[in-house]
Amino acid sequence: MASGSLVRVARFPALARLLRTAGGTALRAGRRAVRAGRRVLRWLDPAQASSDELLSWPLEADFLEVIEEGLRRCDHGPSDRYYVAKELLLSLGRLDADTAECGVYRGLGSYVLCRYAARMPRCERFQHHGFDSFEGLSDPGTHDAPDRPGVRAWTKGDMAAPLDLVRATLADFPWVVLHAGWIPACFEGASDRRFAFVHVDVDLYEPTREALDFFHPRLLPGGIVLFDDYGFLTCPGARRAVDEFLGATGERLVRLPTGQAYFTRSR
What we know:
The protein is α/β, with parallel strands linked by helices. It is built from 8 helices and 7 strands, in the order ααααβαβαββαβαββ.
């Protein structure tokens, strides 16, 4: 769509919402068609299937229902990375403290985490916390500039999403608490909580480092912190913050081919 058309659409919010809904419906239909086509190709000639096409997780019916309902509600997000997040969450077995997400965006990550947390044994006062400015990213710093030519740099206000949309996405879960504000000020409302699982997806150096400073001392031994953007060329600052912090604490980082990384608190 030409830039002039985008400006005209932006002047009519109802039309913009209709286009997003139609686009999301088409995207989900396309994904289902691709999965069906791959199944047919594998049945006709298994030797022609690539290694990715032979993976079983994209065909897991339960996860497909969860992610497709999440996409219907908020219409954006990487299925593979959220599959990793739910598997790490479930690996805990039970939730003896809260869960959290820093960088909620439109709410898909928190939706997936809450759907699976709802099935797990949980502590009596369990809460899931979502921390976000809901105004997009803060100002990138010097550590956040990509060092590869052609890689787009973040700008202030990227990844903004309305708080009301996230509230609607997570309305099924009465134990969700959303903290609107800039990191680290928005952490003040959860300073007395302990955490079993934390998903950090804030893209930049400063908020990543502030999140680690806040959550690490409040993380249960055996608790997990998952970084969404550690391995992406667009997020060198986030990677630097993680490397510096874990280098000082001695926690062992596990890097994943999805671009994610995580550590389990050892003590």
